[in-house]
Amino acid sequence: MAEMALLIVGAIFVNNVVFTKFLGICPYMGVSKKLDTAAGMSMAVAFVLTLAGAITYIVQHYVLVPVHIEYMQTIVFILVIASLVQLVEIVMKKTAPALYKALGIYLPLITTNCAILGIAILSVQNDFDFLQTVVFSFASALGFGLALVLFAGIREALDLRQVPKAFAGAPIAMIIAGILAMAFMGFAGMVK
Amino acid sequence: MNYADKFKKTFFTENPVTGLLLGLCPTLAVTSSAENGLGMGLATTFVLLMSNLVISLLRNIIPNRVRIPAYIVIIATFVTVVDLGLKATLYDLHKTLGLFIPLIVVNCIILGRAEAFASKNTVWHSIVDGIANGLGFTFALFILGAIREILGSGAILGFRFWPEEYRTILLFVLAPGAFITLGFMLVGMNKISKMLEGK
Amino acid sequence: MAKEESVFKVVLTLVLIAMVSAILLAWVNKITREPIELNKRAETKRAVKIVLRGLKNIAYPEFPEEMEVDHSPVKYFKAVGIRGVLMGGAFIVKAPNGFSGDFEMMVGVDSSGLIIDTYVLDHKETPGLGDGMLKESFKEQFRGKRLAGTTWMVRKDGGDIDAITAATITSRAFTAGVKRALQAFERLKKEGQK
Lengths: 192, 199, 194
What we know:
The complex is a heterotrimer of chains A (192), B (199) and C (194).
Chain A: H1 2-14, H2 25-30, H3 35-67, H4 73-95, H5 97-103, H6 107-110, H7 114-125, H8 130-158, H9 170-185
Chain B: H1 3-13, H2 24-29, H3 34-57, H4 67-89, H5 91-97, H6 108-118, H7 123-153, E1 155-156, E2 159-160, H8 175-198
Antiparallel strand pairs in B: 1-2
Chain C: H1 7-51, E1 65-69, E2 72-80, E3 86-98, E4 101-110, E5 115-122, H2 136-139, H3 168-193
Antiparallel strand pairs in C: 1-2, 2-3, 3-4, 4-5
């Protein structure tokens, strides 16, 4: 149990996906202009990432390894993730229209969110078992959400400030992300 | 097609990284040194070139409805080729780039060029487009890597400016330095682009 | 877009693309498998040469043997001299709980249990901080030490090892790794005497 807690805290704070693993930067910069879109994106990512972690684990250990085609990992994983996103979209549309309305527009963007594929591959590389994979995927998604929502909050406030013209938009956002990353370095060493 | 113009565009005004903000994950993650930036850039260029070539060849055969999955399969195939090829030839480089080699698959630049260019243009033009965008990407990664390596480790491509024992601005090789350097680089590149356009 | 493609054509194209891709990858995998294996082994061999340098007239096997120390697997190359006398060994251990997880290192020990040198095989420690463990100034203090007579902890924890500036966690992991390797050697030596 303590080990699981460490895994969770580690994935959210110490080894945050965005700030130390550099995964999912594109949506991080893209959908962080408003707080509510950031929250929506975070939830969609949490949902897909956890599911993708579970399914890629099964695919890796019950298909790729027994058949000895581990070298097909990249291609199989990305196909699994792409079809999963499609499937989630269809199922959600039919069964939970309210949820679909809230998260639907983010779903297509998720296929190319490298955090999904990255975390799936990392779980395999770290030799996680099924439960660890699921917990790690979900905690990583929480870490992504935390980073995204924090950042969106700052960017909303930033809109009201005067930024030197050359820095307006992406450059200042990048520098703020750097400062946030610095803050997250403070968590380093908290686990272990 | 004017080649000089095309390359000027993909290097500056429409540079995939500094102009369009695509492919940011590998850009930030592997640029702790100029050499790594260069390696990642060239690996991506290869994938971009090959996928553009094949997709443009097949552009009239692939049914419109399933073009995205088809593109993903083609791209992922070449990514795996690069992954295995690098492991067999440049083992140490492969070790440093690690996870970010398979992640070339989800680099939006590649799918972006496939959808926006290769699926509509002739093979020859798609090859040029692939090389131009790939080298533009490589250029951005190399510059970012060089700045971070010089400031953070006091060296570039094995050439030391001051002895190893001396203190350097460590921040630049650490994660926050990646974001901050790219932020300042965006400002610089925007200025250069404006100057080029003004002519 | 104007004409609606038949399902048959859609499926057929996808299957064909997937098949061509699978065949291509199987072929690339086949031709690269051997060079990749060789690269991996060459790296280990290079490391063994470094950590066992100075030992004369020794032979070690092509592939490492395995044992367990503290529930963690240790791979080792036994260095034997003439008539099979144990002359030392190169131990591949997991340095536990580094800054970015475990990392793999190799420790070379001579026949009397003194450390010849250390070599980090694979690590994800922070560049500029944790990778200070690759520097001479840090590695130097380990050379010539043996399991007995040294408290294998960093000074902050009451031991004898000078940690790398601003990288105590990495130093702790490194020290624990070295200790494991030395324990493994002592065990090997005892087994030899039986």
